[in-house]
Specification:
Layout: H1 3-20, H2 22-30, H3 36-55, H4 61-86, H5 92-126
């Protein structure tokens, strides 16, 4: 199996593989809101958006609403980043890359084993 064939296979089977992996499931669940601390972290963007909206920095009302939405999105991304950095262990990306390498090695080894078995069968038949 070539690397391109593996990439095609991985893209087709990625979701099923990740759904079955316990490390991936646990990490994915760790991003969910579980306590008061998480709730506060995700309320910060809403509070920042309301404060920006009330500040009147932007004079045009539609632009003020749009700028407030941008502030909320940026604050939300910062909060998610902070939360992801405070959780110890591998990230979702790291887990996925590790699994991808494991499957690649497994498939290469299986291919080598099958080609070795074919070579043995061929030499046995030649004798």
């Amino acid at each position: 199996m070539t690397e391109q064939e593996f990439k095609t296979w991985w893209n087709a089977n990625r979701r099923e593989i990740l759904k079955k992996n316990q490390d991936y499931i646990e990490r994915e669940n760790s991003y969910k809101i579980k306590g008061i601390g998480d709730l506060i972290i995700f309320l910060i963007p809403i509070i920042a958006g309301v404060l920006f909206l009330d500040s009147g920095i932007v004079k045009h009302e539609m632009l003020n609403w749009a700028a407030s939405a941008v502030v909320v999105i940026i604050c939300f991304l910062i909060c998610v980043f902070i939360k992801s950095r405070t959780i110890p262990g591998e990230t979702l990306f790291d887990i996925e890359e590790r699994l991808k390498k494991e499957y690649w090695e497994k498939m290469k080894n299986e291919e080598n084993d099958s080609s070795l078995a074919r070579m043995r069968t061929t030499t046995d038949n030649a004798d």
